[in-house]
Design goal:
With 341 residues, the chain is an alpha/beta fold. It is 35% helix and 14% strand. Strand 2 and strand 3 form a beta hairpin. The longest helix has 17 residues. The radius of gyration is 20 Å and the shape is globular.
């Protein structure tokens, strides 16, 4: 319980020596498929899923969709609760839902109940209450989105977060972000939109093994580390993966049960890692079911390894600090991405 309280504002509690370290040289907890806690079992399987699964869904939706939900659910709490636990990287997979009107939702196998607008508004409220915490939002996949959808989504994000957005030209550290009242880094998996909006960052590389075997996941991540980390932000995914045939053959099992069996081995590997600027250093670590273990505390604790030796590249000297009170720019009313009903 004490760890959870500290994790709520863990960035503001880091030692002075780490405040000028670029965020891509810190260890940051993230949640894989962050919005999968609210999947809608009345919605169809995604068009991007295998043909076999979609065919069975058309014939037996009452069987297929609960089955897919059990395997596609990787988190169990809303974004603000995840942030309270210490999560600072959110994996948002955005989709246009059939018969959803002009509203955008999220998706993992099937669609979510909560809209994009509802989730981002909730996150904005949480950030207001925690002005020294910085969240990285990864917007990706974009199932069935049109160019118009991308335009409205990007405009909404930029309007909602306003001056809290850290631009892609910056080298963000905690101190530099605090001095400008910046709290949000948005990566966007559509390069055309990134080129049009300096507030959006190029999509962050996400390393994952695409395997249900935790030993193969670890072996894959070690192999990637040996090849050298990217220059900026990147994600090491501790998440397991199953394919559609396995899901169909194991309808009564689920991702939670599989994750729980593997978690101790995955966390043991995570605890051996070190952030920093070295080629084999970690940055963002993502996990399923972040609320059921000490994952966030473990990853946050990795940052203290930087105090015992070299490993963190300091950012350029920060600008003079601004007044400490940061106010959220109010978003103008819009129905561009909709509310859920």
């Amino acid at each position: 319980m004490e760890d959870e309280k500290r994790n709520t504002d863990w960035m503001s509690l880091l030692p002075e020596e780490l405040l000028d370290v670029p965020l891509w040289n810190l260890a940051i907890p993230g949640s894989h498929d962050s919005m999968s806690f609210c999947l809608d079992v009345s919605s169809p399987v995604l068009k991007s899923e295998p043909c076999l699964l979609r065919a069975i869904d058309r014939l037996f939706p009452c069987w297929t969709r609960p089955c897919v939900s059990r395997w596609a659910t990787t988190q169990q709490s809303v974004l603000s609760d995840q942030c309270e636990l210490g999560v600072r990287f959110l994996d948002l997979r955005i989709a246009r839902k059939p018969a959803g009107g002009n509203k955008l939702f999220f998706a993992h196998g099937i669609y979510t109940l909560m809209t994009v607008k509802e989730a981002l508004d909730e996150l904005s409220t949480w950030l207001e209450a925690h002005p020294k915490e910085i969240v990285i939002i990864s917007c990706s996949h974009f199932e069935s989105l049109t160019d118009e959808d991308h335009f409205h989504l990007a405009e909404y994000i930029i309007t909602l977060f306003g001056k809290k957005l850290c631009t892609s030209q910056d080298i963000p550290s905690l101190r530099s972000c605090w001095s400008r009242c910046q709290q949000v880094i948005v990566t966007y998996g559509n390069q055309q939109m990134v080129l049009q909006h300096p507030e959006l960052w190029t999509e962050i590389p996400y390393w994952y093994a695409d395997s249900p075997d935790p030993k193969k996941v670890i072996a894959y991540l070690e192999d990637q580390k040996n090849r050298g980390r990217p220059a900026g932000f990147y994600v090491s995914g501790l998440n397991l993966t199953e394919d559609a045939p396995y899901v169909l053959l194991h309808p009564l099992q689920g991702m939670r049960k599989m994750t729980m069996k593997a978690l101790s081995l995955l966390l043991l590997w995570a605890g051996e890692q070190r952030p920093g600027q070295e080629a084999d250093a970690v940055n963002i670590l993502c996990c399923d079911f972040v609320a059921v273990s000490q994952f966030c505390s473990l990853v946050i604790g990795l940052n203290y390894k930087l105090l015992s030796g070299a490993g963190a590249l300091a950012a350029p000297p920060p600008p003079p600090p601004l007044p400490p009170v940061c106010r959220m720019q109010q978003a103008s009313p819009t129905d561009a991405i909709g509310e859920s009903t």
